[in-house]
Design brief:
The chain has about 250 residues and is α/β, with parallel strands linked by helices. It contains 10 helices and 8 strands.
Length: about 250
């Protein structure tokens, strides 16, 4: 990697403050599933967020099945995935807000025109589009540059599977080393790293300095080259990441 040509942004809690809203909306549905199978455990939105941040509802249910030893048939799973999608979108269309400073950073990137930009998310495509439209970010991303691990792929998956990043690079006709992924979660960071994409971590959506510091440490341990606390740091952090990548390349 020298200077990147494309920036690939995660959506939830990277561009849009949506994770808490989404997990609150889907906790009730997850609990309905557990009740159906006679499982006593129940989850709150924050508990689901802690356990499954960065994953889509499909991935979360797959893991719940393993954890609690029950099984949904494919038709049941699809029904619940669509139900969750509808509930979350309705909530996001009412309440979603941009991550602090994200809109300003995107506007500057758009005006400068130095980078191509895409959204690469685990969440369903309808949800991603609803989120960025609600907060006024849709104007920065062509529709064919919005990618969903739950919807865009022939076989739906979720981060940390690298498939959605590899697919995105193929569509935009760029090598992974020509891109930078911006991610806020371990699963998202791992997805990009596995795809060979340098990662710029973002922790500004986490609550308080202590939690942000813990997440910064985790993202770096997972493979993020640089971590920013706030969006106003983006340009400096991107330059630092490119400098690190050039040094690593020169050392080979």
């Amino acid at each position: 990697m020298g200077k990147a040509s494309h920036l690939l942004f995660d959506c939830d809690n990277t561009l849009v403050l949506s994770e808490k809203l989404a997990f609150e909306a889907c906790a009730e549905l997850a609990n309905q599933i557990l009740e159906k199978f006679g499982i006593d455990d129940r989850y709150t939105g924050p508990q689901l967020l802690t356990d499954f941040v960065g994953q889509n509802f499909r991935g979360m249910v797959v893991n719940l099945q393993k954890r609690h030893e029950f099984e949904l048939n494919p038709e049941e799973l699809e029904t619940y995935v669509l139900m969750e999608e509808d509930r979350v979108i309705a909530t996001l269309e009412r309440k979603a807000e941009p991550c602090i400073g994200a809109n300003e950073a995107l506007e500057k990137l758009h005006q400068d025109g130095k980078y191509g930009m895409a959204v690469v998310s685990s969440s369903a495509l309808r949800r991603v589009k609803a989120s960025i439209k609600k907060v006024g970010q849709d104007k920065y991303f062509p529709e064919h540059h919005i990618f969903s691990a739950a919807t865009s792929l022939e076989k739906p998956t979720s981060k940390p599977d690298p498939a959605i990043y590899l697919y995105s690079c193929k569509v935009i006709q760029k090598e992974p080393c020509e891109c930078v992924a911006v991610e806020d979660s371990r699963s998202g960071t791992l997805s990009a790293v596995r795809a060979g994409i340098p990662v710029l971590g973002y922790v500004g959506s986490y609550d308080g300095e202590e939690e942000q510091a813990e997440m910064a440490k985790l993202l770096k341990a997972t493979g993020a080259k640089v971590v920013m606390n706030e969006w106003h740091e983006f340009e400096d952090c991107l330059a630092e990441l490119e400098k690190i990548a050039q040094a690593e390349k020169a050392a080979i």
